[in-house]
Amino acid sequence: MEFAWKPEQEDYRARVRAALTELLPPNWDEFYVPKSYASDEAIEFSRHFCAELAARGLLVPHWPKEYGGDDAADWNHFILSEEMKAAGEPRGPQYMNVNWIGPTLMHFGTEEQREQHVKGIANGKVIWCQGFSEPGAGTDLAALSTRAERHADHYIINGSKIWTSYARGADWCFLLARTGSGRKEISIFLVPMDSPGISVTSYPGLIKDGHLNEVYFSDVRVPDSSRVGEEGGAWKIITHALAYERVGVPRYHAGLAALDLAIEQIKKEGRYDRVVQSLAGAIASKFEAARLLTYLVVDQRVKRRPPSTDANLCRICALDAVESLMDFLVQCVPDCLTGGDPLLEDYYRINIPAGITGGTNEIQLDLVAHQGLGLPRK
To answer: Containing domain of residue 203, as a range?
Structure first.
């Protein structure tokens, strides 16, 4: 089996790296390390940066040409994700647009929605946030209580969302709301964030600025045309979207880079003994396993195979590696959060919520058990 990249893929990676060299300012490390993807500054920078990527044909090369892409295989998408993650993700919140919001709307949106939103994402200037989690419904999305009541040709939305990264700078919200009494009678709405009745409150936490926001919906009116798919039919759409989201972030790429930084510091301090070497080797092996599982899922997409629980296994493996590395940093680089290497602190803080966003490992394991292995729920 050949694991090497093809010449055209290497050429594409070189183009991405050249664009990063050209487009990122000389003080980029000083800019992105203290900030977060969700900071006001990063959001505004992403509008300029992603528009420049789009102009070079590098933002959505794997999308169909009719939506601004180049009909390239999904491999280019993951090469792009790897290089962006290694550079500190200058796309900011727009990695989410490219990873799953655009593909979801291509598959389930109306012609009008695809024309407006998919093409809007492809130009690199539109910011989205994800209105999923609520104070009483995080991992268990079916427990959400935000409600959309239908009135003739429109809906009135009331409720709140929590942990809504990018909300204070977003143009649109990909919103889940209950439209029936059944547990999974949920619908998706594409809601302008400047709609009357929407307010955003940020609050502090261990992770970086801009990720922790509550969004309140008070009699927010949206037209029937803002709904994606059939009323109450969001569950299959969410499943489709999350299958993309679970492998959309190449955690192995940034994790291995952070591990190298930690090892370099430990060596300088003369503490790289056999115990530390063993721990570091085990973590590196976990990240490489996550890389291979990610490539497996991408290969399945390239070959147009139906989604499987391999995407869940990929996420489980990646998060296990991330958690092991975070434990390693606390044990072996004790100053990583108190004035040590700012890149290591950045890595740690960014990944504090990694085991929760997109569904906890317990949920992923349940999905593998039920859908992959066919085990009973009780």
So the answer is: 130-233
How many residues does this entry show for the chain? 378
Is residue 239 one of the residues assigned to a domain?
Answer: no
Q: Compute the distance between CA of residue 65 and CA of residue 61 in angstroms, rounded to an integer.
A: 8
At CA 22, angle to CA 259 and CA 63, rounded to 5? 80
In a domain, 304, yes or no: yes
Domain-embedded: residue 58: yes
- Residues 40-96: pLDDT tens digits? 999 999 999 999 999 999 999 888 888 888 877 678 888 888 899 888 889 989 988
Give the per-residue pLDDT at 204. Answer: 84
Amino acid identity, position 267: K
Rounded Cα distance between 61 and 54, Å, is 9
Pairwise CA distance, residues 196 & 183, whole Å? 28
**Token pair recorded at residue 224:** 């029937």
Query: b/e for 257-292, b at 16 or more Cβ within 10 A?
Result: ebbebbbebbeeeeebeeebeebbeebbebbebbbe
Burial class (CB in 10 A: 0-12, 13-18, 19+), 242: buried
Q: What is the pTM of this model?
A: 0.84
pLDDT tens digits, 251-294: 888 899 899 999 999 999 999 999 999 999 999 999 999 988 88
Q: Can you tell me which residue has the tokens 């700012």?
A: 342
User: Considering 126, 148, 172, which residue would you say is the last residue of a domain?
Assistant: 126
Q: Are residues 251 and 348 in the same domain?
A: yes
Taking the C-alpha atoms of residue 85 and residue 149, their distance in angstroms, rounded to an integer, is 40
Last residue of a domain, one of 94, 126, 158: 126
3-class SS shares of the chain: helix, strand, coil, % to 5:
50, 15, 35
* Cα of 99 vs its chain's centroid, Å: 7
Closest CA to 243 of 355, 94, 129, 99: 99
